[in-house]
Design goal:
Epimerase_deHydtase, Rossmann fold, Nucleoside-diphosphate-sugar epimerase, Lipid_A_modif_metabolic_enz, NAD(P)-bd_dom_sf, alpha/beta, globular, single chain, two-stranded parallel sheet
C-alpha cells in the first residue's frame, strides 16, 4: 500500500513513517523541514505541491499541523493556511486520486473550555459527545479541519477518520508553574491517568484507522491512554485526586514515595477512549499501571519507539521561558 504521511519530520509523523517503512509499506513523507523520514519538502498549503505527491496514493495519514506552542509565534492566518487550507488541499487531492482512507490527526485541545468545569463541579468526563468550545486559533483551526473531513465524507464519500490525540510530546510541560512544581517524569506519569498517550499507541490507532476507514465511513475518536477512573470518581477526583488514585491503583503510593513524587491534588477532566477501542479494535498498552510497572523494574517507561524519536521541540529556537515563547 502506498501511504502519504504529512508532517513526517515531526513527532508523530516520524513515528508513522518509521513504523510503515519497517512493515515494508511504500511510504512518502511530506514536511516543510528536512529529515531522514521526509521525501519531499514543501507546504501542504501549496495545492500544486500536494497534487504532485498524491498520485498513486491509497491512504493518507495527515499529521502536519501548527501546534499550540506556535500560537505565540505565528499569526492566526498561518494557522488557517496550514491547518485548514492545507487539510482542504489534501482532501481535494485525495478525492481526485481515488484515495481509499484519509486519517486526520486532531487534538483533544479542540474541547477547549469544555475541559474545565465550573468551580464546585465534578471533574469532566470527556467523550466524543462533549461539544468542543475552542479557546484559541489552534483549537478553532483543528475543529474546522475536522468538519472539512466530515464534509468530504458526506459529499464525496471519502472515508475519513479523525483521531483526537492527547499529549504524546516528550518535551517539558508548557506550563512554567507545573515545570517548577513537579519533576518531568512525575508530571508525565500523572498524565497517563487522564490526558497522555504513548506515541506507539497513537501510531497503532492511526494504522487501525486506515484499515477500518472504509467500514467506518466517518468517525471522530479520542486517542488517549485508558484511564483507571470511572464516572463515579469524578466528584472526588476534582478535589482529592490522591485518594481516588490510591483506591483505583493502590500500588502507586509506594513507588511515588520511593521517588519523592506527588500526585496532583486535583484532576479536572478525564479523556475516555472507549469509542476508539470499540470502533478501531485498538488496544493501547501504555497506561498508568504499565508505566508504574516499568518504573518499579527500573526501566524506561516510554515505548522503544518514543525513545528512538526523542525530543524535537517546536520552534528550532530557545526562548526566555525555555522551549516555549510567552504570548
Amino acid at each position: 500500500m502506498r501511504i502519504l504521511v504529512t508532517g513526517s519530520s515531526g513527532h508523530l509523523g516520524e513515528a508513522l513513517v518509521r513504523t510503515l517503512r519497517a512493515a515494508a509499506h511504500d511510504t512518502i513523507g511530506l514536511d516543510i523541514v528536512a529529515s531522514p523520514h521526509t521525501d519531499a519538502i514543501g507546504s501542504i498549503a501549496d495545492r500544486s505541491f500536494v497534487d504532485r505527491h498524491m498520485h498513486g496514493v491509497q491512504a493518507v495519514l495527515h499529521a502536519a499541523t501548527l501546534h499550540k506552542p506556535h500560537v505565540a509565534t505565528h499569526s492566526r492566518q498561518a494557522f488557517v493556511d496550514t491547518n485548514i487550507t492545507g487539510t482542504l488541499n489534501l482532501l481535494e487531492a485525495a478525492v481526485a486520486n481515488g484515495v481509499g482512507a484519509f486519517v486526520f490527526t486532531s487534538t483533544t485541545s479542540v474541547f477547549g473550555d469544555a475541559l474545565t468545569p465550573p468551580a464546585g463541579a465534578p471533574a469532566a468526563w470527556i467523550t466524543e459527545d462533549v461539544v468542543p468550545v475552542p479557546k484559541n486559533i489552534y483549537g478553532v483551526s483543528k475543529a474546522a479541519a475536522e468538519d472539512l473531513c466530515q464534509l468530504f465524507h458526506r459529499n464525496q464519500r471519502l472515508p475519513c477518520v479523525v483521531l483526537r490525540t492527547s499529549r504524546f510530546f516528550p518535551e517539558p510541560d508548557d506550563s512554567p508553574v507545573r515545570r517548577d512544581s513537579y519533576a518531568d517524569g512525575n508530571l508525565k506519569t500523572n498524565e497517563f491517568l487522564y490526558r497522555r498517550v504513548d506515541i506507539q499507541d497513537a501510531v497503532d490507532a492511526h494504522l487501525l484507522a486506515i484499515a477500518r476507514a472504509a467500514e467506518i465511513g466517518f468517525g471522530r475518536y479520542i486517542v488517549s491512554a485508558t484511564t483507571p477512573f470511572m464516572p463515579d470518581d469524578l466528584p472526588a477526583l476534582r478535589d482529592d485526586a490522591p485518594a481516588v488514585v490510591a483506591r483505583r491503583v493502590p500500588a502507586y503510593e509506594a513507588e511515588y514515595a520511593r521517588r519523592g513524587w506527588r500526585m496532583f491534588p486535583g484532576i479536572e477532566r478525564v479523556y475516555v477512549n472507549t469509542a476508539a477501542r470499540q470502533a478501531l479494535g485498538w488496544r493501547p498498552r501504555h497506561d498508568f499501571a504499565h508505566v508504574l510497572e516499568r518504573l518499579r523494574a527500573g526501566e524506561d517507561p516510554r515505548s522503544p519507539l518514543a525513545q528512538a524519536i526523542g525530543s524535537k521541540g517546536y520552534h528550532g529556537a530557545s526562548f526566555e521561558d525555555g522551549l516555549y515563547p510567552v504570548e
